[in-house]
């Protein structure tokens, strides 16, 4: 079929318009997400900017990417979940990070929380009990050119003794009690954020401060996380 000049100009105009619309749509979804974070009390401009910049869609399977910027937890591989953006931003804010700090994350999952932390801290160490999740997260860090995250397959309940002590520790799976080993791997004046409570039950986000004389705990808000399970997963 031969296009006349007017038709072909129209064809290209429509086509490029639809490409721009896809990018615009994604930008709009991100902006809406950030506006909802701000409305719900996330006040740090730095964290809001990072939440807008890191592409959550790239941490999800293709069947969920359309929903990447909804403020909800979503399923990932190995029966686990990527946390809700609000919780990711809130936990990041409560960690009170600066760019000289070394952070341990227990529960890499998709790698999204670690990617957010990598923009706020000097170095992030992240542990995951599923080898598959660890490998997928590492591929995402590489694709996004993030070079200050070290990831490993391992039992986070044992911490990362070779890299301890840490300025901050974040646990992204719910424990029944505060893991003593992790407290031991936290520096004095360090902060640990973790969800505490039974599987599918009454869980609370806890902020733990370590001082020379012991630990001080503050309850932040009710949450729902997958459980912290001891040992490396047998299923890859
Ligand atoms: N931070 C993640 C959320 C992951 S959900 C994200 O941004 O996507 C919690 C993760 O903790 C799961 O992937 C689960 O496999 C992992 N996990 C549970 N117990 C663990 C343990 N003892 N050591 C390491 N990872 C653990």
UniProtKB/TrEMBL annotation:
SUPFAM superfamilies linked: S-adenosyl-L-methionine-dependent methyltransferases (SSF53335)
Keyword Aminoacyl-tRNA synthetase part of the UniProt annotation: no
Record has Iron as a keyword: no
GO BP annotations listed: methylation; protein repair
Pfam families: PCMT
Major site of localization recorded for this protein: cytoplasm
Residue numbers annotated as active site: 83
UniProt-listed Gene3D superfamilies: Vaccinia Virus protein VP39 (3.40.50.150)
GO cellular component: cytoplasm
Catalytic activity of the protein: [protein]-L-isoaspartate + S-adenosyl-L-methionine = [protein]-L-isoaspartate alpha-methyl ester + S-adenosyl-L-homocysteine
EC supergroup of this enzyme: transferase
InterPro entries: PCMT, SAM-dependent_MTases_sf
NCBIfam families, sorted: pimt, PRK00312.1
Similarity annotation: Belongs to the methyltransferase superfamily. L-isoaspartyl/D-aspartyl protein methyltransferase family.
Protein name: Protein-L-isoaspartate O-methyltransferase
């Amino acid at each position: 079929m031969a296009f006349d000049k007017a038709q072909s100009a129209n064809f290209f105009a429509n086509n490029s318009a639809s490409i721009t619309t896809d990018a615009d749509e994604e930008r709009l979804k991100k902006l809406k997400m950030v506006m909802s974070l701000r409305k719900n009390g996330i006040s740090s401009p730095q964290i809001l900017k990072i939440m807008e910049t890191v592409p959550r869609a790239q941490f999800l399977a293709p069947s969920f990417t359309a929903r990447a910027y909804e403020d909800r937890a979503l399923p990932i591989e190995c029966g686990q979940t990527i946390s809700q953006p609000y919780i990711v931003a809130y936990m990041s804010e409560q960690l009170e990070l600066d760019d000289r700090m070394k952070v341990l994350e227990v529960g890499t999952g998709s790698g999204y929380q670690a990617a957010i932390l990598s923009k706020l801290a000097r170095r992030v160490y992240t542990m995951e009990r599923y080898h598959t999740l660890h490998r997928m997260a590492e591929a995402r860090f590489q694709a996004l050119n993030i070079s200050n995250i070290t990831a490993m397959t391992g039992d986070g309940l044992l911490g990362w003794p070779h890299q301890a002590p840490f300025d901050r520790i974040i646990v992204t799976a719910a424990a029944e009690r505060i893991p003593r080993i992790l407290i031991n791997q936290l520096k004095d004046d360090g902060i640990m954020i973790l969800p505490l409570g039974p599987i599918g039950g009454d869980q609370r986000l806890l902020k733990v401060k370590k001082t020379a004389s012991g630990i001080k705990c503050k309850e932040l808000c009710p949450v729902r996380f997958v459980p912290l399970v001891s040992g490396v997963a047998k299923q890859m």
